[in-house]
Amino acid sequence: MGEAIVITSGKGGVGKTTSVANIGAGLAGYGKKVVLVDTDIGLRNLDVVMGLENRIVYDILDVVEGRCRLRQALIKDKRLEQLFLLPANQTKDKTAISRQQMVELIQQLKEEFDYVLIDCPAGIEMGFKNAVAGADKAIVVTTPEIAAVRDADRIIGLLEAAEMEPPRLIINRVRPDMVKRGDMMDVEDMLEILAIDLLGVVPEDEFIVISTNRGEPAVLDGHSRAGQAYRNISRRLLGEEVPFLNWDSNNGFMAKLRRFLGLG
Amino acid sequence: MRGDGIIIKGTRKGLVILLDARRDFEELKKKLEDRLASAKDFFSGASFTLSPNLPMERKKIEELECICRTYGLAPYQGEQGDASPGSPAEKGVRESPVSTTIAELELPVLFREGNLRNGQELIHPGHVVILGNIHPGATVKASGHILVLGSIYGSVHAGMEGEKKAAILALNLRPCRLSIGGVPASLPEGPKIPPGPQIARFIDGAIVIHPITAPWSPLCRSGRGIYPG
Which residues of chain B are within 8 Å of residue A156 when distances are taken between CB atoms? Predict the structure, then answer.
């Protein structure tokens, strides 16, 4: 029996879908059987980010309303054998699916996959409630902005009230140079405010824009810093102890040499 | 309340009869009669106010007032006539023109462990103790004191029903909004409240926030704050 994890944030545009795509590809890259479920009915994006848009035949609504079998709606990833996508419907809205239908669907997927990653829509309404209903665990994504942190706090409160186990936090789009200058909240500030465990810190990375446009998760690129962060997050989900990345500017060649010589 | 559930206090504004509303009403009635009868001449002619520690039914209040009247007591009329007898009960309020300490009201205490997050609201007709933080966007409303073993970033309202002796304490006090007894505090912009344990109280017409001092300091001994007497 697998594990269902919902990725949520409250605020839109903080990187839920990107996180789902990258963590999913990361876990699949480590040999797990993973399915990504897009519950953002009416505003689906995960298929685009995964580069699988043109392969959609059936969607989540077709499954719950019995127009196709679950197997028929699952789209296999181009690159990873073990990665699948269950796309959202694009013509209806969040009310098209019920809580009970969602719980049953996730249960069914858990029987077949190691990890079921649920991409949650923004907001705290029905779409959020449905996405959370079938999940065992939650990951909250935020960015170092007051509004995003406030919304994350609200979401954590709602998850706690739903008696889920305490969610873990991903801080996305951190700019170490700005943090250093004191122009951006640092990780400690946010952890103090939100008071939950940290799962990972993802640095701002131009490559995310490129990879998203191409439909290839950054996690599969060996040079992307964000990709590295998502690989670490995937390993932490698998239970490994991975130290948090340190992007102090002294990561250059001279600094490495000095450390190598025992001088740094 | 200790003993028989009735405390009679003499104040400048007459007698204040503190009632333990959790007791059996018939018992309370009898106890009140006994007390008044035992010092009939002493109490006769005095004005009085009933002050139950929890909201009481109007009918019961009237019955108790009736007993008082038969022993020669007159209901307290208030300074502007606003505190007509029974009005505290009518409003469901313990607002009494009293010099009792808030401790004597014996409000129920609510303990809460964990953070109060954005959008969450805690309303309690008594004192509130929180082991955790009150986040920005969270609200606590209490009839009595609010004690937070953590940080306050959200909105806190103590003495919600007009009790100006209520206090707000926190290990780190950075509220977004704060009021005591319905009086809002004008909070400094920016991080002007120094870090460390702070207490907010209503003193001489304004809300004063200052570092928590030891109970033996003169300010606390004057009986203004949470340290009664």
Answer: 117
> Closest residue of A to B117, CA-based?
A157
Q: What is the pTM of this model?
A: 0.72
Q: Do A150 and B136 touch (CB under 8 A)?
A: yes
Q: Each residue of A224-258: pLDDT tens digit?
A: 999 999 999 999 999 999 998 765 545 556 666 66
Question: From CA B131, how far away is CA B111, in angstroms rounded?
Answer: 8
Whether residues B118 and A160 touch (CB distance < 8 A) is answered with no
pLDDT in the model for residue A159? 95
Q: Residue ranges of the domains in chain A? A: 3-260
Q: With a cut of 0.90, is the ipTM above it?
A: no
**Separation of alpha carbons A186 and A144, rounded Å:** 7
What is the distance in angstroms between the Cα of B118 and the nearest Cα belonging to chain A? 5
Q: Which amino acid is at B223?
A: G
Q: Supply the CATH classification number for the domain A3-260.
A: 3.40.50.300
Minimum-distance CB partner of A156 among B117, B132, B133? B117
B-side interface with A, Cβ within 8 Å? 114-115, 117-120, 132-133, 135-137, 153
Mean pLDDT of B186-212: 82
